[in-house]
Automatic annotation (TrEMBL), chain A:
Organism encoding this protein: Neobacillus vireti LMG 21834
Identification of the protein by name: Cytoplasmic chaperone TorD family protein
Statement: the UniProt record of this protein carries the keyword Chaperone: yes
Pfam families documented for this protein: Nitrate_red_del (PF02613)
Keywords: Chaperone
């Protein structure tokens, strides 16, 4: 396996993982039938980088224990952590980690928006939905990942934004999760982010 | 590119507060970046309070409700996000089902209060009216006894412009703590002091306002009427009354004199805990250092004799001729500037077969009435602008009554304790995301509120929710709801004004309010024409109307001896500056202030009970008990305890204790919240 093959395979896996997290945070997996979860697990078991990481393996192990009973509390727990209506236990907004009041729509949100503008992108319902919701940041990363030319911007965005706060986010998930699935995704994100960090460091950008 | 310019929009703080501040919102890149006071507001003059300056943290609070959510089972914490379509369909379906089940809309109840005082926030009342006759929480927990008292004495509710205080020689701040609860008033009071006025604070607590006064008179809670009576007796005995004023402008002075004369001065002094020297001081200030401006707070009327307390002070002012003249008057609250048409409430069913009006459920005894009304029973409860579960008496009974509801819908900004006990919560916009109009119950300025930013996530205004619901109901069944679903926000605003109102505001169109708040053209000094709206046309020191409502015709009376041996301490619920009841509780920076609920008690009482400062103690009465941290305070007397009612703990001790008045104006008696008798013990 030569160097470029590894990179190519990494990119595919990266794209897959970012897409998976995007769907997860958008709430698309909340209605996923039990049978589909089995298929997803099979795919995850075949992701080499994820399997090479302790947290990734831990996540997959968690999901292997999943039953139909596990699915039931998933939506409630997902809402407790990321949606509400209660006090959010693992905020999915970047800015909320950066100020004492924990408010959304702050300076970081605008910085993220500026990144999007630079790429000619804009969040729907701008001003109503904070641009730095993890779902939008993941979607933006996917956009940047799709072109080799945007590599620099991608690394900059990761360093200036997602990587700055996602560890805290994962820690809160670990602390507050009450469902096997949300915990598994918390582990998986933590593991994946470790891989992303090492990749960036390895590329020396 | 991000925009480097910002837009400025006008807003009004819609909270239940004296100031109703006009505010300016600064928005850049569709993001609210700053909130300031509006310098064009003639009363608040560009200043806000600590809460107002913190609105950005409220608007962009992480925990604000973002989506319509459904909970099953109720209270389980198992919430599902639903679409607005699903929410509205579920609610509309239930409304129709209940109508067909009971052949009436009485199984639908609305409980709304003062979480938002905006005119367009009457949308849900308007929506309920548009269905026909429904059940409704009627009454008022705040100012009901005082409003009746003012009505009996003067026939209408007026206040003077605050500038009027600058003409006063004597200022009596009676049971009011503006330093904490009405900060804008302080500049006027300080200016009056500079011009030579003497400020007297009469209060059971040595408040921050008392500390800034020239004289502080600490009375026993609820004894306002007793001290007024003692002063009146002194005035009478020392010829300090204004005979000319009394003859020309009052009704019943002769009867009142006869009534007062035989009452015991000693007993009055004992009841209020004063010496004759203190009484002489007040009497001479009122009689010799005129004009005297008296401001009555709301706490002193939250007693079983609360209305009488207010009437007693009204009488005192009348006896000394301190009404209708510049710098004088008894200020409580006003409604004369509320000249809106309230057409938002008047879109009634065109079908004459449908009954109109409301089946009243007593606001202050809601749990009881909810259980009592069974023909038909209430099955659907809509809660808005209200944290019902933390701000009600008889909490356990209320929770039990709520169990029989088939659907509870709460419109909110946050998941309050009430929202937690709902089936559906709907996220509401704030004043930075919607249109509205706000008047004040204190000053005379009207302000408009325009949207600055897009609604937070999927939140909607109450008006929009009412329109959506009305539209859906009519799609299910033609002509089911009369509330207009096709009016725009601007059209709803338009219909709130009349030519007369425009004239009074000296504008030709409501849009001119976007240039700045306007003062309603009412007299600057309350009752300056000395033409009262009572049956006699005079101040009624003897009120036949009160008598007909099974009340004493006289405002003045000694207290009944109602102290309980088992519960000898009076627990006062005094507001503090950083929260309004359960509002503003969840701002992290405010949580640093008074981190946990505390009870304030005098060190002498603490010593007697063996209570150490900072220790947990038990407070109990016949309604329940709570554990709370004790703090020493020399600002209260030995038999008085104080708590800031910004958390639900205290409600466990509260039942409905009817005040003497309130039914006449607000539709229900006030709750004597400050007659809360308790006992304490160390743990």
């Amino acid at each position: 396996m030569n160097h470029s093959e590894i990179k190519h395979s990494c990119l595919e896996e990266r794209m897959f993982m970012y897409q998976l997290f995007l769907h997860y945070y958008r709430g698309d997996l909340l209605k996923l039938p039990a049978a589909e979860w089995g298929k997803l697990l099979e795919i995850l078991e075949c992701q080499p980088a994820l399997q090479s990481n302790d947290w990734g393996r831990k996540a997959v192990l968690q999901l292997q224990n999943m039953t139909t009973q596990t699915l039931e509390p998933f939506e409630y727990d997902f809402n407790r952590l990321f949606v509400g209506p209660n006090k959010l236990l693992a905020s999915p907004f970047e800015s909320s980690y950066q100020n004492f009041e924990g408010t959304v729509m702050q300076a970081e949100t605008l910085k993220v928006r500026n990144f999007y503008y630079y790429e000619g992108l804009q969040v729907a319902n701008e001003g109503g939905l904070p641009d730095d919701h993890i779902q939008f940041e993941l979607e933006f990363i996917l956009h940047l990942l799709s072109s080799e030319k945007k590599k620099e911007a991608l690394h900059l965005f990761l360093e200036k934004h997602l990587l700055k706060w996602v560890d805290q986010h994962c820690a809160r998930i670990e602390e507050h999760s009450q469902s096997l699935i949300t915990l598994a995704f918390g582990y998986m994100l933590k593991g994946f982010i470790l891989l992303e960090k090492s990749l960036i460091e390895g590329e020396g950008l | 590119m991000l925009d480097q310019t910002y837009s400025i929009t006008r807003h009004v703080c819609p909270r239940n507060c004296y100031s109703s501040c006009s505010m300016l919102g600064y928005t850049k890149n569709r993001r609210l970046i700053k909130v300031t006071g509006d310098p064009k507001h003639g009363y608040t003059k560009g200043l806000l309070c600590a809460k107002g300056y913190n609105y950005i943290n409220n608007v962009y609070h992480l925990d604000r409700l973002k989506y319509p959510m459904r909970q099953y089972p109720r209270g389980s914490g198992q919430w599902q996000r639903i679409s607005w379509t699903e929410a509205i369909d579920t609610i509309a379906g239930k409304v129709i089902e209940l109508y067909h089940r009971y052949d009436s809309h009485l199984s639908l109840a609305l409980n709304k209060y003062s979480g938002n005082m905006g005119v367009l926030h009457h949308a849900m009342e308007g929506f309920f009216n548009g269905l026909g006759r429904t059940s409704r929480a009627v009454g008022n927990p705040c100012w009901a006894p005082g409003m009746d008292a003012i009505y009996y004495d003067y026939g209408e509710h007026q206040t003077s412009d605050m500038e009027d205080i600058l003409h006063a020689e004597t200022i009596i701040l009676w049971g009011i703590n503006p330093v904490w609860t009405s900060i804008h008033a302080m500049n006027y009071i300080y200016e009056a002091q500079k011009r030579g006025a003497k400020v007297i604070t009469i209060d059971p607590v040595y408040t921050e306002t008392a500390k800034k006064s020239d004289t502080f008179i600490q009375i026993k809670p609820g004894s306002d009427g007793a001290i007024a009576l003692a002063v009146a007796k002194y005035i009478l005995e020392h010829n300090l009354y204004d005979a000319e004023f009394l003859t020309a402008h009052t009704n019943g002075w002769g009867e009142l004199q006869e009534y007062i004369q035989p009452l015991s001065m000693e007993e009055a002094l004992q009841q209020c805990g004063q010496t004759i020297e203190a009484i002489q001081f007040i009497a001479e200030r009122l009689g010799r250092n005129k004009p005297a401006y008296i401001w009555l707070g709301f706490g002193m009327q939250r007693h079983q004799n609360g209305g009488q307390n207010i009437r007693a002070v009204n009488a005192l002012a009348a006896i000394t001729g301190n009404i209708g003249r510049k710098g004088s008057g008894v200020q409580f609250g006003q409604r004369t500037t509320w000249k809106f048409t309230y057409n938002i409430l008047n879109h009634l069913p065109s079908d004459n077969q449908k009954a109109a009006g409301v089946r009243a459920l007593d606001f202050n005894n809601f749990a009881n009435d909810l259980q009592m009304q069974q023909d038909p029973p209430v099955k659907f409860l809509w809660i808005t602008c209200r944290n019902l579960i933390t701000q009600s008496a008889n909490i356990q009974q209320l929770k039990k009554a709520l169990q029989s509801m088939e659907l509870i819908v709460t419109v909110e900004h946050f998941l309050t304790e009430t929202a937690q006990y709902s089936d559906i919560v709907l996220p509401a916009t704030t004043q930075f995301e919607e249109w509205d109009l706000v008047a004040s119950y204190w000053h005379h300025w009207i302000s408009i509120n325009q949207p600055a930013i897009p609604p937070y996530f999927e939140s909607k205004s109450e008006l929009e929710i009412a329109r959506m619901l009305s539209k859906r109901l009519n799609e299910f069944e033609a002509d089911f709801s009369a509330f207009p679903s096709d009016f725009t926000d601007e059209e709803f605003i338009e219909q709130e004004f009349t030519d007369e109102f425009y004239q009074s505001l000296q504008i030709g169109d409501w849009r001119e309010l976007l240039k700045g708040p306007r003062r309603v053209d009412v007299p600057k000094t309350a009752w300056e024409a000395l033409e009262f709206k009572t049956p006699s046309g005079k101040i009624e020191l003897f009120s036949q109307q009160a008598s007909e409502n099974q009340l004493s015709p006289f405002g003045m009376a000694l207290l009944d001896n109602r102290k309980s041996e088992n519960y000898p301490f009076t627990l006062l619920l005094n507001h503090e500056p950083f929260r309004i009841n359960s509002q503003f509780q969840n701002l992290p920076s405010y949580k640093q202030i008074n981190k946990e609920p505390s009870i304030y008690l005098h060190p002498s009482l603490a010593k007697e009970k063996g209570i150490r400062a900072g220790s947990l103690i038990r407070i109990f009465n016949e309604n329940g008990e709570i554990m709370i941290r004790a703090r020493y305070s020399e600002e209260v007397n030995h038999h008085t305890l104080v708590i800031h009612p910004n958390h639900p703990l205290i409600n466990k001790l509260l039942a409905f204790t009817p005040a003497d008045m309130g039914e006449f104006i607000t539709g229900g008696k006030g709750n004597a919240l400050n007659d809360l008798q308790v006992n304490i013990a160390k743990l």
